[in-house]
Structures are given as structure tokens and as C-alpha cells.
Design a protein that fits this description.
The chain is an all-alpha fold. Helices cover 73% and strands 0% of the residues. The two termini are 33 Å apart. InterPro entries: Sbt_1. Keywords: Membrane, Transmembrane, Transmembrane helix. This is Sodium-dependent bicarbonate transport family permease. Pfam families: Sbt_1 (PF05982).
Length: 350
């Protein structure tokens, strides 16, 4: 961020960044896939359920906190919640690297929790936003409705309504007739778009290869040794991107700054608490608890923005992308990772 602030002309080509992200997520996917292949799947049930619940819960938190603040548009707040509920692959990669460096044990499949939090968050945000927009649209139509106006604009053929009983005589009846199938939110296209996103596609590909093939040799000779170096380059890119997004935050309400600082830590603490429940009931490791907390505190920087742009086109990208990239991600990495790691060590005595 300092380099960008000083006006450096350093540029990492987008193609290189995409390759780096692909390799990092492939490595995480391969790790998870190999672990799933060799593990007891019943151990994953509770962490997976908690990951899904967290993705949905985070969106509702934004809907009923951020959206209620002055000068914050509801649809922008919902989109922001969706982005903060979704997962940052780079933040998760950084957390796994720190855990490895501290020699803290965690389930190798912990990285596979990513899609179980990411997809529900994006789907929930888009569904809630569209329901809100449709309700707002119908409400506006109902306010301007009158039976006389409606009848004056209709050309009714003789005998169509012999008893005049089919005319919409109340606002509720009018609104119910306006609620067509086109206004209903279709969930599967959202899920499909999320799964087809570059980030999730790379991770799911890695998981599939790890489960169905035996990639240990290429994993040990190629993906694993390059992981830390590639991650360091991605952190540089993200820092420069974060600085560029700070300008966008100035265009929207200052409450986004407050939310971006508080939300990652709040989400992480909720996830840490749920992780501890899994720890005491199923033996989920303290390292796994840290991973769950970190991915909950993260906000999507790869797959989330294009998904939300397509699913909630009326939302302001300066609000949700600026809040996530400029402040949310640095907080999750710089504060969240050491905080939750230290908390786990204090509780676990390690």
C-alpha cells in the first residue's frame, strides 16, 4: 500500500496475477482433496454445516446493521454483506501458511470449507437483494394505483369480466397480479455462476484431482514449494489494489469504513465460537478453528465481485468492493490471522 501511495509505477500484469491465484487455489484444493480421500467424512459434517450457516448469517448481519445506518442504501449493504460472507482465497492461503510456519496442526481438508461458506453467502445476498428490490418496485406501483386509473387504461372485450369480479379492486389484489414469474429469484443460476467462477473452479478442480487421482508427486515437487513465493507476490498485488480502492470509499458513506473494520473481527469471533463447539464435540483441531475463523473474517476478492455485479447490478461496486479490498482484507490478514491464532494458542496452551 505504501509503494502505491508513493506513486510507484510497478505493475504486476493481470495475467500473472491470475496464474498465481490459480496455482494457490489449486494447491489448497489438492491438499483438501487428498485429505478428504484419506479421512473420515463424518468429521467434516459439523464444520461444513457451520461454514454454510456463517455464510448466510453474515449477509443477514449486514442487512440489519449496515443497511440501517444513515446514507447507506439497503441494496448496497446487502451486496457488501454478500462479499464479506464470501471467502478470500488469498486470505485463507495466508492463514494456512502462518499455521504451517507455527507448526500448528489443522485438518488438511479445512481449506475445502471455502465453497461451503462462499456459495451460500453469494446466493443469499443476491436472493435477498432481489426480493427487496421487487418488493420495493411493487410497493411503488401500489402507491400510485387506483381502481379508476387501472380501469381507464384497460380495453375489456365484451363478456371478458361479466360480473366485474376479476378486476383488481384492492392494492393487494393488484400487487398479486403484478407478481409474475419474471420477478422470482432463480437460485440455481446463481449457484451455477458461483461454481463457474475462476476461484471456485480452480479450488474444486484441485479437490477433484486430489480425491480421484494420486497427485502426491507433482504436489510435492511443484505446487507445495512454489506456494509461499507466489503468495508473497499476491500479497503485494493486493496491497496496491487496496490503496487504489481507498478512493472509491470516499464516494460512499463513511459507515462503510466502520463496518469494514468491525465486521471481519465480529464474523471471525462468531466463527471461532462455532469452531470451538466443533472442537469439543467432534475433536475439530484448534488449527481448524483458526481456519474457520479466518475465512469467516475474510471477504471475497476474486469470485465475489463479478458474481455480485451480475446478480445485483443496481448495487454500487464502489461500496462493496471498496469496503472489502481497501479495508476488510487488510484487517482480516493483518489483525484477524494473528488475533485468532493467538486466541487458539491461549486456549489450547500451545
Amino acid at each position: 500500500m505504501v509503494i502505491a501511495a508513493l506513486g510507484s509505477e510497478l505493475v504486476i500484469p493481470e495475467a500473472i496475477t491470475q496464474i498465481i491465484v490459480f496455482m494457490l487455489l489449486m494447491k489448497i484444493g489438492l491438499t483438501g482433496g487428498q485429505a478428504i480421500r484419506n479421512s473420515n467424512l463424518t468429521e467434516m459434517v459439523l464444520p461444513v454445516a457451520f461454514a454454510m450457516a456463517l455464510g448466510i448469517l453474515i449477509v443477514f448481519i449486514a442487512r440489519y446493521t449496515l443497511a440501517k445506518l444513515p446514507k447507506v442504501k439497503t441494496v448496497d449493504a446487502i451486496a457488501t454483506g454478500g462479499l464479506f460472507g464470501a471467502v478470500s482465497g488469498s486470505t485463507m492461503a495466508a492463514a494456512l501458511t502462518v499455521l504451517d510456519g507455527q507448526k500448528i496442526q489443522y485438518e488438511a481438508w479445512a481449506g475445502a470449507l471455502y465453497p461451503f461458506m462462499d456459495i451460500p453467502a453469494l446466493v443469499t445476498a443476491i436472493v435477498i437483494a432481489n426480493i427487496y428490490l421487487n418488493k420495493k418496485k411493487r410497493s411503488a406501483a401500489g402507491e400510485s394505483f387506483s381502481k379508476q386509473e387501472y380501469l381507464s387504461k384497460q380495453t375489456v372485450a365484451a363478456g371478458d369480466y361479466p360480473d366485474q369480479q376479476d378486476y383488481p379492486s384492492t392494492r393487494q389484489e393488484y400487487l398479486s397480479k403484478q407478481q409474475s414469474a419474471d420477478n422470482r429469484v432463480k437460485i440455481w443460476p446463481i449457484v451455477k455462476e458461483s461454481l463457474q467462477g475462476s476461484a471456485l473452479s480452480a479450488m474444486l478442480l484441485g479437490i477433484a484431482i486430489g480425491i480421484l487421482a494420486q497427485p502426491e508427486s507433482v504436489y510435492k515437487s511443484f505446487y507445495d514449494p512454489a506456494f509461499r513465493g507466489l503468495l508473497s507476490i499476491l500479497m503485494l498485488v493486493m496491497g496496491m489494489e487496496a490503496w487504489s480502492r481507498l478512493g472509491e470509499l470516499r464516494k460512499v458513506a463513511q459507515w462503510y469504513v466502520v463496518y469494514s473494520v468491525v465486521a471481519p473481527l465480529l464474523h471471525g469471533f462468531i466463527a471461532f465460537g462455532l469452531g470451538m463447539i466443533a472442537h469439543y464435540t467432534t475433536g475439530f483441531s484448534m488449527g481448524g478453528v483458526v481456519v474457520l475463523a479466518v475465512i469467516a473474517s475474510s471477504s471475497s476478492d476474486i469470485s465475489g465481485p463479478p458474481t455480485l455485479r451480475a446478480g445485483i447490478p443496481s448495487a454500487n461496486p464502489s461500496a462493496y468492493i471498496g469496503a472489502s479490498t481497501a479495508i476488510g482484507t487488510p484487517i482480516a490478514i493483518g489483525v484477524g490471522i494473528p488475533l485468532f491464532l493467538g486466541l487458539a494458542q491461549a486456549i489450547g496452551g500451545g
